[in-house]
Design brief:
Elements lengths: L2 H19 L1 H10 L4 H26 L9 H27 L2 H8 L2 H13 L5 H17 L11 H21 L8 H23 L7 H29 L1 H8 L2 H12 L6 H18 L7
């Protein structure tokens, strides 16, 4: 693969990660205006689905209907996989309702060790020393990044619970998204996964929205949330990862962590102390260790 293609892939993945890193800050700002989790997630998924439908239509016209169509089995598998995508959004948005965005993104990054654990269960073999070291670094980084060493610092247990559940569902999403119906276009895959996620999101909204649904959310925050959460990042990352490879792509996508914390610091005035930045750097270092091949090339 040429150097130009790799650089293009790095740019696409970095832009996707940066875009997604801004998302939680916008959700927190929507909360501050009185919108509920049901309104936020529903508007994001409805407009996200419309956006992906438009992209699919353009691709169909561009390729003159010659794109590989999804089979009924593909659609079912992708919608099933998409339910974890819907749960990730719900759990993550519920988490940042109770804890700072800078802490929420750190909890979401626990996918690093959860992924190792899931891989160990599925493949029925112990992880490599390299991965074990990375997991320990993540745990140390998490203790620092969440400021747990300060006895007077208290985190709402609900936020921690929802944050860890978001990480668990996101781990499932990553495993399924890279293995289910890879023969069809990324736009089609995104559409059916979004439809699967919408089932979860709409069910949650129906069960929890006791007041009249505020339709103003669609124009005020829905467009921003759908662009930054369900349209731009998946499209950029699915285009960039094949060019960078999983290892380099995973390292570049870790950019999401400092971007999310910086956005919360600038727009929400969240206090982030030096030790928390050290913890964030350690988590990024662990992701790099996880994905670098230390073996010398023959």
């Amino acid at each position: 693969m040429s150097q130009n293609n790799v650089l293009k892939g790095v740019f696409l993945v970095a832009l996707g990660a940066t875009t997604y890193g801004m998302l939680a800050t916008f959700v927190k700002m929507a909360y501050s205006e009185g919108y509920t989790t049901a309104e936020v997630t529903t508007s994001q998924f409805v407009l996200g689905i419309i956006g992906i439908l438009i992209i699919n239509a353009f691709q169909k016209i561009k390729h003159k209907g010659k794109t590989v169509k999804a089979s009924s089995k593909n659609i079912f598998s992708l919608m099933l996989a998409g339910t974890s995508l819907g749960m990730t959004s719900l759990f993550y948005y519920l988490a940042v309702k109770y804890i700072p965005v800078s802490i929420g993104i750190v909890l979401l990054m626990q996918t690093v060790w959860m992924g190792v654990l899931l891989e160990m269960i599925l493949e029925k073999k112990l992880p490599s020393l390299q991965k074990v070291i990375a997991v320990f670094i993540v745990l140390i980084g998490t203790a620092l990044a969440t400021n747990l060493i300060h006895a007077d610092f208290k985190l709402d247990w609900r936020g921690i619970m929802w944050g860890l559940l978001a990480a668990a569902s996101f781990t499932t999403t990553m495993f399924t998204a890279n293995s289910v119906a890879t023969e069809i276009s990324s736009a089609q895959r995104s559409l059916y996964m979004l439809l699967g996620g919408a089932v979860i999101v709409f069910s949650f909204a129906f069960a929890t929205q006791t007041e009249t649904f505020n339709l103003a959310i669609f124009l005020k925050w829905g467009i921003v949330l759908s662009l930054f959460g369900t349209i731009i990042p998946p499209m950029l990352m699915t285009a960039g990862f094949p060019l960078t490879g999983i290892g380099l792509g995973s390292i570049v996508s870790a950019l999401e962590l400092p971007v999310s914390v910086t956005m919360a610091f600038i727009l929400l005035n969240e206090k982030v102390i030096f030790l928390q930045w050290v913890g964030i750097v350690l988590i990024i270092l662990a992701i790099i260790i996880m994905n670098i091949n230390f073996k010398a090339k023959k």
